[in-house]
Amino acid sequence: MRKEIIILILLIVYIQANNLRILSNEDFEFDGKYKDGKAEGKGKAKYKNGETYEGNFKNGLRDGRGKYVYKNGNVYEGEFKNGELNGEGVMTYKDGQKYEGEFRDNLRDGRGKYYYKNGDRYEGEWRRGLKEGKGVYYWKEGDKFEGYFENDKKGSYGKYYYKNGERYEGELKDGIREGKGIYYWADGDRYEGDFKNDKREGKGVYYWADGDRSMGDYVNDKEVGLHVRLDSVGHVIERFYE
């Protein structure tokens, strides 16, 4: 029995010394060097579930830079720490989407860019895998949103920039204009006032590019009731009802 144990020990030493593949206690086959019986340094690993990793190991765990190929077709290339995605990296998804940026504990966390398969993209802050904090969302058609995100959705305030040169800045609800805001037209006109359900609704002031302005109420994006139009120095030009 003692002779068999000695032979087994010598065999293990030989295998490790020659970088041969053996099954480790972390449930993967490792092609690389060992230290104190654990994968150490650069090497290749194949896991029981069919996933693979090529990169750096430390104390038997993925640590440093490497490439991980998932069985679902996703591929991650970047930094690892203590066996998990931590640091800068790129995750390319099987469906064509891609994330470039910071990871923490296997989740998108920090600053990063996400490219959607429909051509849209998001650039900004992430927390625990969700859009959270300041960011910019770009639509492939040319529009963009700049503001704050909460729980993966547009927050309560932001700016919309439209490809036709118009823009909105103000309060939001469920991603649409609601509350106090300002809408700018490409020709220099603007509206300042209340919005509801993405339309002008409530009290507001319409400013023309030449300096005139009109004050009154709005319902469903249209003027209602009494409106007073003033010139650039505040003189009343007309009063009219809609």
What does this structure look like?
This protein is mainly β and 242 residues long. The chain has a domain at 1-94: Histone H3 K4-specific methyltransferase SET7/9 N-terminal domain (Single Sheet). Helix content is 7%, strand content 64%. It has one helix and 20 strands. It has one helix at 2-17; strands at 22-23, 28-35, 38-47, 52-58, 61-69, 75-81, 84-92, 98-104, 107-115, 121-127, 130-138, 144-150, 153-161, 167-173, 176-184, 190-196, 199-207, 213-219, 222-230, 236-241. The protein has a 20-stranded antiparallel beta sheet. The termini are far apart.
Structure summarized in a few sentences:
With 242 residues, the protein is mostly beta strands. The chain is built from one helix and 20 strands.
